[in-house]
Design brief:
Organism: Enterococcus hulanensis
Low-confidence stretches: none
Largest sheet: 6 strands, parallel
Protein name: Mannitol dehydrogenase
Number of domains: 2
CATH topology of the largest domain: Rossmann fold
Distance between the termini: 59 Å
Radius of gyration: 22 Å
Structural class: alpha/beta
InterPro entries: 6-PGluconate_DH-like_C_sf, 6PGD_dom2, Mannitol_DH_C, Mannitol_DH_N, NAD(P)-bd_dom_sf
Shape: globular
CATH architecture of the largest domain: 3-Layer(aba) Sandwich
Pfam families: Mannitol_dh, Mannitol_dh_C
Number of strands: 11
Strand content: 15-25%
Catalytic activity: D-mannitol 1-phosphate + NAD(+) = beta-D-fructose 6-phosphate + NADH + H(+)
Mean pLDDT: 95
Helix content: 40-55%
Length: 385
């Protein structure tokens, strides 16, 4: 049986990457820091997924076991020398903790003369595998030339609706049918191969990543920032507010039009993507047991209103092609109203506005120049809220 090692046994690790690899017949080894998660997996050598689009039908992922990143490092290093595929799902900020042990394992694999291995960071981050490679080089355990000799390292884009909770009386992860794992084709040893059947193999990963961030993340972010101002606590509440969704749908259309022009997506491709990854998710969010706080989606407003992120990024692309972007800018204005006292970035943002004024804040955090047409629109919208 083929073997895979997944760093991170969280919702994406179990609910997405683990699911795809299980479908391809892999035995799966998880490496995680949580004793509780490790014990739960090893108790039965399986775990449960619940399919939101099929009345929470239970799906068993078997042939799995887990190792502790803190207590079983030697076993993990040995596993790295033997598996057929290695992935991470730990969040980009935690890759620095994975890099040393992965570097040790790959160096041993090379020294033992074993076969090349596929390594991918499956994170909600742009070019996450490149980040992981650089972090491994920084350990001085393995060099770039040695990494190139022992493996291939394509970047990926990931997207799936996943939520942990109690479903049908069991603890597990709820997952939707719609998903996207995009893999850089040109960085595979064989560009025509498909090492994971359920993945999409692409030549322009930047286009795929920005499509996801500038459509799906944009949709949820603007929904949440406006929803917060209207007093909603949960994302599904804001998604059911038709006044909010009229604005958000127009923002998504503006974003899609810019993406079509910049990256060459056809209108049919874009409409299919929006239908699969956004419209169908309205139903997902309406499922019983799906609880997603507005505060989670809206967290880190300074990052999310930056020039290349989910709201202003597509706003700038639309402007580049002289396309409408008023609803995207309307959404940006609500970011500057986000004053959640439990969010460190929100507190920092509001303190900056109080000291320096909203005009300076818009320019500093969104990159819009004072006096420009886009700047004035955001300012006017902000003042009208």
């Amino acid at each position: 049986m083929k073997k895979a090692l997944i760093f991170g046994a969280g919702k994406i690790g179990q609910g997405f990457i683990g699911d795809l690899l299980h479908e391809d017949g892999y035995e799966i080894i998880f490496a995680d820091v949580s004793d509780e998660v490790i014990e739960e997996i090893n108790e039965k050598n399986c775990y449960s997924l619940f399919l939101t689009n099929h009345n929470y039908e239970e799906k068993i992922i078997d042939n799995v076991f887990a190792l502790s990143l803190l207590k079983n490092q030697e076993q993990i290093i040995e596993a790295i020398t033997q598996v057929d595929i290695i992935t991470t799902s730990v969040m980009k900020t935690n890759l620095v903790s994975v890099a040393p042990i992965l570097a040790k394992g790959l160096k041993r694999r090379l020294d033992e003369g074993r076969s090349r291995v596929l390594v991918m960071a499956c994170e909600n981050a742009i070019m996450g595998t490149d980040t992981l490679v650089n972090l491994m080089i920084d350990t001085n355990i393995i060099t770039l030339d040695q990494l190139k000799e022992i493996g291939s390292y394509p970047n990926t884009g990931v997207d799936r609706f996943v939520f942990g909770g109690i479903y049908k009386g069991k603890e597990g992860t709820a997952v939707s049918d719609s998903h996207e794992l995009a893999i850089e084709r040109q960085k595979l040893d064989d560009p025509d191969s498909k090492p994971i059947t359920g993945a999409e193999y692409v030549d322009n990963l930047e286009a795929v990543l920005k499509r996801k961030i500038y459509l799906v993340n944009c949709w949820l972010a603007i929904t949440s920032y406006i929803g917060y101002t209207k007093g909603y606590k949960m994302v599904d509440e804001a998604l059911r507010d038709e006044d909010i969704q009229k604005i958000v749908r127009k923002a998504v259309i503006e974003s899609a039009a810019g993406l079509e022009r910049k990256f060459g997506f056809s209108n049919d491709e874009m409409n299919d993507y929006i239908n699969d990854m956004i419209i169908k998710r309205y139903d997902d969010y309406n499922q019983e047991g799906i609880n997603d706080p507005v505060a989670r989606v809206a967290r880190q407003p300074i990052r999310k209103v930056s020039p290349d992120d989910r709201i202003m990024g597509p706003g700038y692309i639309a402007a580049e092609y002289n396309l409408p972007n008023e609803h995207l800018l309307y959404g940006a204005a609500y970011v500057f109203k986000y004053d959640n006292p439990e969010d460190d970035e929100a507190v920092k943002l509001q303190e900056y506005i109080k000291i320096h004024g909203i005009e300076t804040a818009i320019e500093k955090f969104s990159g819009l120049k004072q006096g420009s047409e886009m700047f004035q629109l955001v300012l006017n919208y902000y003042n009208s809220i």
